[in-house]
Specification:
The complex is a heterodimer. By secondary structure, chain A is mainly alpha-helical. Chain A has nine helices and five strands; from the N terminus they run E-E-H-H-H-H-H-H-E-H-H-E-E-H. In chain A, a hairpin with a 4-residue loop joins strand 1 and strand 2. The two termini of chain A are about 75 Å apart. Chain B contains ten helices and five strands. In chain B, helix 2 crosses helix 4, helix 3 packs across helix 4 and helix 6 crosses helix 8. Classes of the chains: A mainly alpha, B alpha+beta.
Amino acid sequence: MIVRELELDLDAFEGPFDLLLTLVLREELDLAEIDVAAIVVAFIERLVERDELDLEACGEFLVLVAALLELKARGLFPDEEAELSELEPEQAAAELARRLAEYRRMKEAAAWLSDRLEVERDRFFRLGPAPLAPRPERKLAPQDREQLATALRALAVPPPPVSLAHMALRFPPVGQFVERFRSLLRKRRRFDFDAEVENLSRGEVAVAFLALLELRKTGEIAIEQAAPFAPIRISRSDVERTDAWTARSA
Amino acid sequence: MDRTLRLITSNPVDQLARTVEALLVIASQPLSVEELAEAAADDPQRIELALELLADRYREGRCGIVLERVAGGWAFRAAREAAEACARLFERPVQRGLSQAALETLAIVAYIGPCSRPEVARIRGVSADSAVASLVERGLIAEAGREDAPGGAVRYRTTPLFERVFGLESLSELPRLDDVGEDTGEIRSRLEAVAERRGA
């Protein structure tokens, strides 16, 4: 079976595999449009039809499809720094061959290990960490007591107080806003959060928002926001409930 | 001076062999000559002599237990003729077979280790995460530091258990792989042939 003559019927291309490769290499066909998986399926279908495993063809196909996939990947991610792309074709082939050979060597090593495991399957031995005897503590050279006292005295000095001067931010307590929103809701059924905090500093707005979350947690209020960054509307939770009830019974 | 005196008055090797024998029967992992010398408070060279004596006494076919040089030290194991009986009562150290992915990963770590998962993946062309995890779980490989770069990947090396399971004295007993190196030329010429045809 000749891989190059594999007939393909893809969305973007119809014809033999060899022509596809030629067109791709001449950049007359955008590889990004080509469904490589479909090529693989076509090949496998042909293989099944023939009912015999043609290793030569499989190997060649694998190399070609791998190259195709690599080209496609490069085309899809042009910014990716690929080590191979900077090499001349011949160097790239050499590098690929080196990698293949390295992998092949490791496969052979794996086969050797597998055989060895089979040969050595009769090995039985005791396992588990041995409880090792504790090492005798190393004796210290004679020490000067005065020196120890000096060292301790140096440690016993109270550390200088830590300055908090750089922490200029001061926040009002959350409770203050909780009370403020509560009294607001006693007067009005609804209010607009953004309007309420309009003249406050960024830090205060954050604390006010925390107060909102507190009130929501206790179930005192309902919060509504039509879309991200849209105005936040606050209402008494009983108001919302009444509305929902009205809507359902209507 | 002290050393010479000790040599003259020291016990005969046979008595030292009994001490070494006792140490080895207590140990659950191979003991190196240095470890034995330290524990027996004797000379490493005399320990070697004692070990030779014991290795002959506990050789395959003579005793139910066999003394062998393995994983950089000396350890007792069961004689092979008792393997079947052992298997009825005990689990083998690597009871379930290793998958192809695990074997390949193990080979890479054994030959080029310490190496990281990305390095294994680069050679095998597929992710090595689950193979590495299963080998760590079986105790055949273990973490061995990290790659040099900051945040570098964890590196793995094979464990003494690996050498014991595979019956290796050390990693240098692994067969050389150079003899398959000539394949590079062949693979290369085939790749070039393909490239030529594609260019045509």
